[in-house]
Amino acid sequence: MLDKPDREFNLVIDRMALEAEIDALALEHEGHADALRQAVVSLLKLVLKDGREKVCQWFQEDRLGTACAQRLSWLEDEIIRATYAYVTRYVYTSHNPSASERMAIVAVGGYGRGTLAPGSDIDLLFLLPAKQTAWGESVTEAILYVLWDLGQKVGHATRSIDECLRLARTDMTIRTTILEARPILGDMALAQVLATRFDKELVQSTAAEFVAAKLAERDDRVVKAGNSRYRVEPNVKEGKGGLRDLNTLYWIAKYVYRVHDSAALVEAGLFTRREYRQFVLAEDFLWATRCAIHFLTRRPDDRLTFDLQREIASFLGYADRGGLRGVERFMKHYFLVAKDVGDLTAIVCAALEERQAKPKAMLDRFIAPFRRSQRQALTGTKDFVIETGRLNVANDEVFAHDPVNLIRLFHLADLHSLAFHPDAMRLVTRSLKLVNAGLRENKEANRLFLEILTSRNAPETVLRRMNETGVLGRFIPDFGKVVAMMQFNMYHRYTVDEHLLRSVGELADIDRGDGADEHPLSNEIMPTIQNRTALYVATFLHDIAKGRPEDHSIAGARIAKKLGPRFGLSPAQTDTVSWLIEQHLVMSMTAQSRDLSDRKTIETFAGAVQTLERLKLLLILTVADIRAVGPGVWNGWKGQLLRSLFWETELVLAGGHSNADRRASVRLSQEELRAGMTDWTGEEIEAYIAKHYAPYWLRVDLPRRLRHARFVRSVLERGESLGTEVDTDAFRGVTELTILAPDHPRLLSIITGACAASGANIVDAQINTTTDGLALDTIFVSREFPRDEDELRRAGRIAKAMEQALQGTIRLPDAVAKRSAISVKPRHKAFQVAPDVVVDNEWSNRHTVVEVSGLDRPGLLYDLTTALSQLNLNIASAHIATFGEKAVDVFYVTDLTGAKIISSERQDSIRSSLLEAFRPEGK
Fold first, then answer.
1. Pairing of strands 734-742, 774-782
2. What are the beta bridge partners of residue 376?
3. How many angstroms separate the CA atoms of 765 and 738, rounded?
4. Domain named ACT: which ranges (predicted)?
5. Using an 8 Å Cβ cutoff, are 288 and 63 in contact?
6. Of 361, 363, 391, 356, which is closest to residue 376 (Cα–Cα)?
7. Highest mean pLDDT, choosing among 75-79, 664-668, 693-697
8. What CATH number is attached to the domain comprising 374?
9. CB–CB of 414/453 below 8 Å?
10. For residue 398, what are the CA distances in angstroms to 374, 434, 436, 471?
């Protein structure tokens, strides 16, 4: 039975007094069973409500998570005891109970551990004797109805001991619930028989089976919740490094070591006292977080979403301090705890392997493990050995004797593809004070580290183990500053340190030639680069200055200047690393938010890059960076934009892109069309070619030019001036919608409004005006369905909405507002993005470039394009990029005469009108 919590809970519930009140109600309503039942339910509802409020009050005072969960469990125990007393005294009374008229009510699941979150289900086992009477079933049913009337979610089972054991043999979930069974009341002898037989008949002979099932179950759960403990919206219960991981550790340890509480794991030799304290503190923090979520949301939600993180941080007392906001300090604490849970998991798994209860691990699943017997010497060193297939220290003085061994350990693991022995990891964490200035400046230590970083084996895996033990953050203090640092936005899905390690992993994949179908150009040019080492170092350091008041790219470049010589890089390599870090966002931003058919865009970017080698390095770094942001961030569309920018810039760096080259390119593009339109007459082809201005021939590829020609002819042959066409592009992950319509300033606004009303997310827009006053626009929207037939049906609905909007048969403002109301994302409310509008005449030779950034929302692009049309501006091209909650939309515009916007007053008017789109009160 659970011990009474640390506070005098009888301030809330006095068991004797409560049962006396029920007895008094029975006298008052004697002979009126329904009235008595209603009175008892009302009384228990009040007791439960008052008890929860008191628990919440205490929790706000002491913020003790485990204690809060135990208090709620104890409160529930008392409610069940009172319900049982009412049912057995006044509903199904048995004055002379037979041997069959007895039961034990047993808490199972989380409730069986003596902990409950405010929104947890109540899991109960009604344990009955083998020979049963109607009494047991009746009492069980009556108790459940009272609990349901109290508004509780109850999971229950009614079984005999034999039934429990029979089901537990084949169902691992039932076996786990019995492992955690805790009798609350009733026949304690019955519960004890179950516990004794369960241990003797199942636990003693099935440890390996149970461990394998629980670890497989954990793997499946972690994949579903997001396969990283560093996701910025973690699931506190089910996510990697969450409460369920701690539960799994305890289940396994309890089953294998046959202990009855977690403290006994120290005596069993599984944990040291420090590690057990780590277990207790992690559990308390995770329980505090989970209880806070439930109390604040008033629902059983275990996901720590952006819109909750500020509230939870404040609820748990995290204030702004040391340059970090309270929410950032709280989330950093969360990720450090998740890391601790990972460390404990590794300790338990390694211990189980030694007991032969779990298959042996390997350093990296892509590399065959190093097969060894129990303990063997490692060639070339006396300080390290191989023990049970893992790298271990030869003795406890290895690091004290030579601190460089703290780096050499990881180097050898990478070199021989060996997993780490837990004894070695424990000694590393106890030896962190040896990672001092002397070791940081040691040439051999830095040489070994650089070889780890640039390894062709598993650099990400080894660097992550260095990070988890604390060595990496101490060896490179600037990296230590970003360990567990959360970026409070919806774009980055991982902490800064995890993002950097994943970036190295993505680079290593490209280096191995993996993923060529997703980023073919990167894989093609990787073997041709001359400075592979600089690329790895830049990738590892590119975000190392995050969280500082200055631009992290500039600050990171300065850090690289300091670290390069220490790592043993040459001055030229250090300069390359520093330049890559300072410019690591430029290629992505240019590709996604500039007109790549505009000559000035390419020339400006080429001027920044200067050499073909830098262009190659920057492309590969950009791909690795984007792919490491999180699942779904990289797509074929971004890849195509980067490739287009690379090819155009490569041409400029090779001396191309003169005016003569552009004229020749236009002629070549027209000749390609002539060659492809074999079913057209010469007059038809020349008439069509005359419809397009020079920029069209430079920006549109041949397959699309051929489709456009046939599409335009089919629309005009019908005697119409309005038509739409749809096509899919699975590789780039986009769907194309092509529109032919009479040109006018509000055209793009109407098109974006139709997309917004249809729930389509625009990623880019190519706008072309013909010489006869028509617009031939192609809108690219994010693909929603994997099957082409489904996506084409969706695209058809969007195209139909465009036609209706252009014909004026639907009222766009109402349609967009309706869609926005159902598409709004509550998480966006957690963020504040200051809107900004930049009007620039230097970024393009022919257009004024208007860059708008601010908090994204449904219908924003429609509002922005509407504002531009109301300002009588022609939009020549639009480039839409979204980075989590932040939208960055860029428009190339002219006035109605085709001239740039020179007047400062007119530019101010543009800024004012566009900023108004971000103010709801201004709409």
1. antiparallel
2. 386
3. 10
4. 736-818, 849-923
5. yes
6. 391
7. 75-79
8. 1.10.110.30
9. no
10. 20, 12, 16, 15
pTM > 0.85: no
pLDDT in tens, 221-245: 767 655 555 567 888 998 888 898 8
In angstroms, the Cα distances linking 533 to 504, 529, 564, 569 are 12, 10, 11, 9
**Alpha-carbon distance 708 to 700, whole Å?**
10
- Does a structural domain hold residue 195? no
Domain around 551: 476-652
User: Tens of pLDDT along 148-186?
Assistant: 999 999 999 999 999 999 999 999 989 999 998 999 999
For residue 368, pLDDT beyond 50? no
Q: Percentage of the chain with pLDDT > 70?
A: 92
Task: Choose one of 456, 474, 492: the last residue of a domain.
Answer: 474
The dihedral formed by the CA atoms of 252, 254, 258 and 264, expressed in degrees to the nearest 10? 130
Lowest mean pLDDT among 104-113, 123-132, 631-640, 675-684: 631-640
What are residue 852's DSSP bridge partners? 837, 889
Q: Are 194 and 186 in contact (CB under 8 A)?
A: no
- Is the confidence at residue 101, as pLDDT, over 90? no
Contact between 20 and 85 (Cβ < 8 Å): no
CATH of the domain at 816: 3.30.70.260
**Are 485 and 469 within one domain?**
no
CA distance 536 to 507: 7
Structure confidence at residue 207 as a pLDDT band (50, 70, 90): confident
Please state, in angstroms and rounded to a whole number, the distance separating the CA atoms of residues 613 and 635. 25
Please identify which residue in the block is written with the tokens 């890391």. Answer: 339
Within this chain, do residues 632 and 489 fall inside the same structural domain, yes or no? yes
How far from 906 is each of 345, 840, 903, 918, CA to CA, in Å? 63, 12, 5, 20
Look up the CATH number of the domain holding residue 334: 1.20.120.330
- 741, 774 in Cβ contact below 8 A? yes
